[in-house]
Write the structure tokens for this entry.
Amino acid sequence: MSNHHHVAKTQAELAELFSQELTTGVGRSIKHDSADKQVSGEAVYIDDRLEFPNQLHVYARMSDRAHARILKIDTSPCYAFEGVRIAITHEDIPGLKDIGPIMPGDPLLAIDIVEFVGQPVLAVAARDLDTARRAAMAAIIEYEDLEPVMDVVEALRKKHFVLDSHTHKRGDSVTALANAPHRVQGTLHIGGQEHFYLETQISSVMPTEDGGMIVFCSTQNPTEVQKLVAEVLDVPMHKIVVDMRRMGGGFGGKETQAASPACLCAVVARLTGQPTKMRLPRVEDMLMTGKRHPFYIEYDVGFDDTGRLHGINLELAGNCGCSPDLSASIVDRAMFHSDNAYYLGDATVNGHRCKTNTASNTAYRGFGGPQGMVAIEEVMDRIARHLVLDPLDVRKVNYYGKTERNVTHYYQTVEHNMLEEMTADLEASSDYKQRRESIRRFNANSPILKKGLALTPVKFGISFTASFLNQAGALVHIYTDGSIHLNHGGTEMGQGLNTKVAQVVAEVFQVDFERIQITATNTDKVPNTSPTAASSGADLNGKAAQNAAEIIKQRLVEFAARQWKVTEEDVEFRNGHVRVRDEIMTFEALIQQAYFNQVSLSSTGFYRTPKIYYDRSQARGRPFYYFAFGAACAEVIVDTLTGEYKMLRTDILHDVGASLNPAIDIGQVEGGYIQGMGWLTTEELVWNAKGKLMTNGPASYKIPAVADMPIDLRVKLVENRKNPEDTVFHSKAVGEPPFMLGIAPWCAIKDAVASLADYSEQPLIDAPATPERVLWGCEQMRKLVAARTAAAEVETAAP
Ligand code: MTE
Ligand code: QUE
Ligand code: MOS
């Protein structure tokens, strides 16, 4: 970059550079800023940080009961182990004992009752993790077992809820159902999902002065960790600094549940005065932390001969686990997405928040949206089988219209809907019709191996539905050498947020990306931040950073106009240079002049999303600033004797507006698709009768591996379509929406199975469609066909 010994360039040379385009601003596929470091191993995660002297390691002893009263805790045996510094229970917590993010329900260490297998009961700090673990296991805990509720349906029937139910309602669905030409009812179980971030939950804490702490925490929500650490220590928030450079994946799992290790470390650090670290081993992480909410769905739907919906009743029962956590908003988002891309007609959607004795389920990519969308996609397939139509035709006939039938069941108008065009594009580019025919022919001639095909849309609402969270801050400094320091409230978890925000700042100043140093998210640089969630990290923080950069740029423009007696319009930034009327100088030359002339070169920035509001008491409003759209077409082959399947080909068309970085966005689309597919196919969570999660490691919990990728994967972004709303450079959020493209392979599997009964019956295959469930689906179809044949024979035999 800047070279102090360079030979001054001539005006002609400067003019030549000025005339060229910046190649590292927005819209460019520049490499993720951590990519090289991640490949070489130089990227620093919390466990890679240099350790402080006298650092303690913390291990939490977990409940082995799903629901029990604690009769006695004796930590004295822990101290028999050499190297143990302290063993703590809830009684040792100096301040608040509950770290529930919105409402109480999550004791840092169990108080009197345990509510799931895996709940932390006590914690031991020792000079190494192994000693801490052995000591913690030596503590004596006596329980009196209580009756657990493990089943979401049982919880629903008993109205065993963590929070009240909520309803979205439009029109009179009861009458619509009664009058509809066709009507079907059904149920569906949708499984949960383990986050399986590569880096498990981890924090390390260093006590500072005045009772303060610096907390290094792998969290999507540094401000909330700051607040909770302050609360458990009973100190003001200004004593606590949270620093977060990068996560080894978050996927929603580090939105609230990163706080527990941070708070335990802080309590130990307070009690001992020593630096403290807590890193969850994989099995402990899987037992202790919540997952995607499993859902149980009941539907009752009325429709006409074309498959068009007249009305629907939907019961969405989220299995929240043992506490509220974020379940209010998660089940709300499931309800908001139970239309996916479709006009529901007269609709009643009820959302329930069921309490079970499992870890408290939490945010996971899509935040309830995927579960709501799976429910309505199951309904679409079911209608198609009932009418023996191509499911794609049923989907298309139900799409939201452009000028009519374009209002959701929560009364937001669907504007700028691109799905009709995108579906037509994808249908053509994927050769849907022709492949549909060739698959029919293949299946007719192949008794065992059956192919399936499905094309499903995605419409995903962008914004936090809790409107106040839609705000962000940033902090930009330009140093006297022209180098730029960038900080914002968002967190990097692999999604490329820092790279995108740096591109935004590069674009505003028209300087090379390399000139900008990305720094750790830190609560004493940008305060009061929202979690990096709801896919709005780049939307919110990009705008805040743009605002900060534009404030500084405006000062520079005003300064240059003053200094060289030109108008502001005469000052132009481009490709690392600045033109002041006819004179061209380097960016750093301008910065030096500005500094000598006492111009402030640092600014905060702020952004709040306009236009959105939501009145929950009326269940009406505009909770989303805009929608992101996508569509996927998946082809699969199923072995109907074993239930095994293979992904043959997937075509994706996804809408990211004017992409900030197409390479990163395509990575998000591919990753989201595969993660969504894993959720609905091989990732199965199994608890035993005592409430212990049995699938608690990679040997038994199967996330997609390389071999599970579709053999042929074709991803395209919609081109030349800016976001019509005023988002950061008219881009669209990309983090979560592609996850729901993973519904296509699930529907394709069911399509293959339905071929066994000539596509006239929907196999009941709950999610995930593991090979076992697929095999049961095949058995259903074969029994059905056998029964039909027998009935036909009886009929022909009759006189
Ligand atoms: N991509 C990677 N590589 N790692 C992650 O943890 N989290 C997802 C998505 N993509 C995630 C990811 C989730 S749940 C969200 S909400 C968004 O990224 C958050 O980042 P963004 O708002 O900056 O897109
Ligand atoms: C999507 C999200 C979140 C959300 C709503 C969404 C989310 C989140 C919250 C939330 C709500 C209320 C609170 C709070 C957080 O809402 O991640 O602290 O008081 O944390 O539509 O991803
Ligand atoms: Mo993402 S589930 O909103 O962290």
